[in-house]
Amino acid sequence: MERLATRTKTCRSGCLTVLEVWIVMRMLLIAALVVLAAPGAIALTAFEGLEAPMPRNRIDDLVFGRLEQLGIQPANPCSDAVFVRRVYLDAIGTLPTAQEARSFLEDRSPNKRQILIDRVLERGEFADYWAMKWSDILRVKSEFPINLWPNAVQGYHRWIRTSICENKPYDRFVREMLTASGSNFRVPQVNFYRAVQSKEPRALAQAVALTFMGVRAESWSDEQWTQMAVFFSRIGYKPTGEWKEEIVLFDPNRPVTETAVLPDGTSVRLTLDRDPREVFADWLLDANNPWFARNAVNRLWSWLLGRGIIHEPDDVRPDNPPSNPQLLAFLERELIEAHYDLKHLYRLILNSQTYQLSCIRRTDRPDAEANFAAYPLRRLEAEVLIDALNQITGTTERYSSAIPEPFTFIPEGHRSVCLADGSITSSFLEMFGRSPRDTGLESERNNRPTADQRLHLLNSSHIQRKIEQGPAMQNLLRSRAKPREVVDTLYLTILSRFPTEEELKIVAAYPKTDTGGNREATIDLAWALINSPEFLYRH
After folding, report:
1. For residues 24 and 156, what is the distance between their CA atoms, to the nearest angstrom?
2. Is residue 101 part of a domain?
3. Rounded Cα gap, residues 247 and 237, in angstroms
4. Which phi and psi angles does 286 have, rounded to 5°?
5. Which residue segment(s) compose the domain that 514 sits in?
6. Who wins on pLDDT, 243 or 385?
7. What is the enclosing helix (H) or strand (E) of 300?
8. Which residues are within 8 A (CB) of 430 and not within 5 positions of it... i.e. 6 or more apart?
9. CA within 20 to 30 Å of 250's CA: 26, 27, 50, 137, which one?
10. The dihedral of CA 329, 335, 338, 340: what is its sign?
């Protein structure tokens, strides 16, 4: 906008200024494209197939069976264009490149979706993205109110990412955190206990229950929390001579009661020579535990399908029942029988017809969403959105923090998804609702759209510079590609699909018709696509 303002001229006859005309034309273009993105206005084949949804695995049997009982018709399966974008965003937190999208769309193999799922689950970005998700609920943050300090944060995040990369069984991942002792710099998983705002046993017990059982503090009585706190009453903290280093340990000199009561009401005997955390971990990770595996699968399901079978995934209580108890029980058994292999669960869900349904609902019934009759629309997370913008434009982002260098040095080109420390941020990440990582609650991340966000995307110099000056856009502008090739490239890069005939007509009718040779027309089209709901939302 700043560039254009310098070129504004006023007509002596009182007509619109050049800037005003430009703004109007841009708004007309984006309005036309946004209207087209609404179901029914554009060829539905851009978003969904015309065939009826057919069960592919046990997940679908249970979901579709429940929908039939309720008299709810599921959505049609999503199109290939929607699927390739969806699975990239949901599995690895990034957009496919234009070439990756094109290759998938042109592939005629009947099992290409399954092949793509297997491929993305083995990419390095898988560990990057899911380390970010786990870092939110594990409170990976240097500064107030968590105060892990930079050295510890880097080690903790590295341990989380490595565990995901190695596909460490989920029960072992949790056991290593719950029973860990040692230096916060050298045994990174002990930072689970340091990341709780209070070191009191009751606060530690509540953090464990929230993270690994999905139980909030207000869900249990004082007596229940008092009993569970006993298992964390012998955790000690000891400083060392190294700056900000702290030893987390089992302190045998701390008093302990002879017996304690587990959350399921079972009374257990505690001995002086054994860490009570180990007793609790043995109970929690037992295959018959009523909370552990159930919470794990429910949380993972909510991350992939927008809401938990128990909703919210960290609000498990008797008066908040699952929408599909049979589905939850099946997934729980599946995880246990797979020896807590989370990738097995990812693969199972992503290959289901339920996950691959279109977002275009066939009913407005409120219980349709809770029973997964369609894929839920969700705005991209702040980190994923800015990384997508940087990928499209070939630009980078700058971050800030109250922490002094060198702890906050971020190499150029570092993706926001890969930021280890929740204290390192940017104005964009804050505006778009990045999780502050203070409480471990899923609700800390705010994906609700705001007027400020819309204005930033529409009118900020930050986004304008990326679109106008980014290397990727400059390369496209300097290319000798034909106008249709330019349009195709923009659509594949930004929306992961080819333009429809209706959209091509709108682009062709835009006053700056020579899209391939006209810089501003190409930039305007990129700007319009980036501001479309189709780009900003998972669909």
Report:
1. 50
2. no
3. 6
4. -65, 140
5. 2-36+454-538
6. 385
7. helix 292-305
8. none
9. 137
10. negative
Confidence of residue 31 (pLDDT cuts 50, 70, 90): low
**Helices (runs of H) and strands (runs of E) counted in the chain:** 26, 7
- At 265 the three-state DSSP class reads coil
DSSP state of 250: E
Q: Which two tokens stand for residue 249?
A: 């340990």
The pair of three-digit structure tokens given for residue 325, joined into one six-digit string: 């108890």
Alpha helices (H) along 122-244: 124-137, 150-165, 170-178, 191-194, 201-213, 222-229
Give the Cα separation of 135 and 139 in Å (integer).
Answer: 6
Return d(Cα 434, Cα 425) in angstroms, integer: 9
Q: pLDDT higher for 420 or 46?
A: 420
CA angle 146, 294, 372 (to 5 degrees): 100
> What strand order describes the sheet that includes 235-239?
182-183, 246-250, 235-239
Residue 205, judged by CB atoms within 10 A of its CB (0-12, 13-18, 19+), counts as: buried
Give the Cα separation of 91 and 97 in Å (integer): 15
- Containing H/E element for 188? none
Q: Rounded to a whole number, what is the distance in angstroms from the first to the last CA of the chain?
A: 30
The model carries a pTM of: 0.92
Amino acid in the structure at residue 34: V
Q: What angle do CA 148, 246, 262 make, to 5 degrees?
A: 80
Apex 73 CA angle, 534 and 300, nearest 5: 60
List the structure tokens of 310.
Answer: 């128990």
Contact 334, 344 (CB under 8 A): yes
Q: Answer yes or no: is pLDDT of 363 > 90.
A: yes
Tokens linked to 264: 């399921």
Per-residue pLDDT tens digits for 386-421? 999 999 999 999 998 877 666 667 888 899 999 999
Query: Which amino acid is located at 236 in the chain?
Result: G
In a domain, 481, yes or no: yes
Kindly state whether residue 532 falls inside one of the protein's structural domains: yes
In a domain, 44, yes or no: no
The amino acid at residue 40 is G
Contact 48, 76 (CB under 8 A): yes
Does residue 428 surpass a pLDDT of 60?
yes
- What whole-number distance in Å separates Cα of residue 494 and Cα of residue 101? 10
pLDDT of 513 strictly over 90: no
Torsion of CA 31, 373, 339, 293, to 10 degrees: 100
H or E segment and range at residue 532:
none
Instruction: Give the sign of the dihedral formed by CA 530, CA 534, CA 536, CA 538.
Output: negative
How many whole angstroms separate alpha carbon 171 and alpha carbon 185? 23
Decide if 314 contacts 85 (C-beta within 8 A): no
Give the number of other CB atoms < 10 A from CB of residue 356. Answer: 22
Tens-place pLDDT, residues 332-357: 999 999 999 999 999 999 999 999 99
